[in-house]
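FORM 7B: Structural annotation worksheet

SECTION A. Query
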Amino acid sequence: MDNRSKSEQVVKGLKSLSNFLEHSLRRNLYEFNPEKPWLPLMVPSYSSDEVLEAIDTLLSTNVTMGEKVFKFEEAFASYIGSRNAVMVNSGSSANLVALSTLTNPMMGGNLKAGFEAAIPAVTWPTTMFPINNCNGIPVLTDVDSVTFNLTPESVDLALSKKTGLVVPVHLLGNPCDVNTIEARLPDEKIKIVEDSCEAHGAEIGGKKVGTFGDIGTFSFFFSHHISTIEGGMVVTDNEEYAEVARMLRAHGWIRELKRKDEYARRHYSIDHRFLFVNSGFNLRPTEIQGAFGIHQLGKLEKFIEARRSNARFLSRRLKRYDSYIELQEERPGTRHVWFGYPITLKEGATFSRVDLVSFLEKRGIETRPIMGGNLADQPFMSFLHHRIAGPLRNAKRIMQHSFFFGNHQSLGREALEYIVSCFEDFFSKVSR
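SECTION B. Predicted structure
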């Protein structure tokens, strides 16, 4: 058999494998069944493309961080509009690397031990934990009652002589007003780390979130807009920050550094293959995660448009209940990417969040609180050094009266109509 015939057989075999994988995945992936309604918070976003790339990676035996991770980093940086992207094993690790970079001895003029960081009181806990890990003091700050994000006014209340950092979170894919917050900061030395873990592709004025501050972070967890199963990314235009981030994710050694030759020359007496120039962790992603990422990224815009279309449909149909509930809207000049679909009960409602959530859950619609709710009320706060700026009225209200349900690329019209019908049933009972 000549080489051409062998190549044709390989191609034919790969096509057959792809078809088999696609069929197998289709059996396991989400499909709405009106007879047994179930609407999960998330469904897998990958297909045979990612599986085949992962199989190729496994067969190559090059499974630790390598060329596919680097390819994904380059593509993600280009998509976001950042000069550098450094992949790590989770979004939580991305936040840890971002804070560890700004407090690293190599960045001597940046954050010193005891610095304060203004963060939203409503977020995921791993927005907060790295601040404590890096000898900083989180300052829990109130958020807007509709967007769930930091406001310039709330940040003003959190500022002190110790403020060294502000961490805007683009919660549920809704862009935070980073520009105004930054413009009002009293000291240009105050750093900004954008937690964009739920906001892939969200925009302000046509510019992607994650690129407004000093460093941006993203998550590729299973439930996010795109997924590498687990995974995260640190993005920055600052070459020094990027280089330190690369050190920190992998033991502090020079292996993947752009300036590795310079370090090798400077420390010529040490084997450059095992030259460690900084402290560090082991937060590296695998090549399988990179394999997923290079295919997922090409599908991101399609997934975003599905979420935005779903949100427009739901808002149009649920607006009639605006005497009971508040809905988010896309603010002018922004692009909301709708990680989930949030609902807030209005003051004076004759029912509780528990009443509505229980009703929806019994009908197969999975719900969640708004991330960690008001973090000031979480038990772990009793042993973490922190400060609270103001009464956190909106954060407390969100904790008690807000929730969200799933909004993802696999929701079709029939599923959306079912969601609306459940709200109709609930409010028909309330009105009686």
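SECTION C. Observations
The longest strand covers residues 340-345. The domain at 300-431 is CATH 3.90.1150.10 (Aspartate Aminotransferase, domain 1).

SECTION D. Sign-off
Analyst initials: ____
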